[in-house]
Amino acid sequence: xxxxxxxxxxxxxxxxxxxxxxxxxxxxxxxxxxxxxxxxxxxxxxxxxxxxxxxxxxxxxxxxxxxxxxxxxxxxxxxxxxxxxxxxxxxxxxxxxxxxxxxxxxxxxxxxxxxxxxxxxxxxxxxxxxxxxxxxxx
Length: 138
Known about the structure:
By secondary structure, the protein is of the alpha+beta class. The protein has a single domain (3-136), classed as Hotdog Thioesterase (Thiol Ester Dehydrase, Chain A), CATH 3.10.129. It is 22% helix and 40% strand. The chain has helices spanning 23-39, 118-121, 128-136, and strands at residues 3-9, 45-56, 65-75, 79-89, 96-109. Strands 1-3-4-5-2 form a five-stranded antiparallel sheet. A hairpin with a 6-residue loop joins strand 4 and strand 5 (96-109). The longest helix has 17 residues, at 23-39. The protein starts with a strand and ends with a helix.
C-alpha cells in the first residue's frame, strides 16, 4: 500500500545552474522518505544498501511542492525493498504529476552495523500486508 512519507517545498538553494533541482538533492529526500517508512515497521536501525531503477522523468522547479510516496514491496530475512515515487503538485490545478521513481533497499542492523533479522526488530503493530510479505519470504 502506497503511503505519503514526506512532503515539502523546493527553494532556490535546492536548484542547479539550469534552474531545476539537483538529482542528488531529490535522491536524498527519497532516502529520507524511505527511512520514515522503514521506521514505521521496525524498532532500531536500518541502512540504505542499494538504490536501483531510478528514473528522473520530469524536472522539479523552484516553488514546487513535492510529495514522496513509499510502498514496502518485498521483505527478506533482514532486508526491506521500497518502491518510491516523487510527485509535484501543480499550483493551478492542485493535481500531482510523477517526476521521479526508484527502488530503495534497506537492511536492519545492530549497533555494530551487522545485519539482523527483521523479526527481531519488527514493531508489534504493523499492517497485515507487511506481515504477509514477511511470511511469503520465509
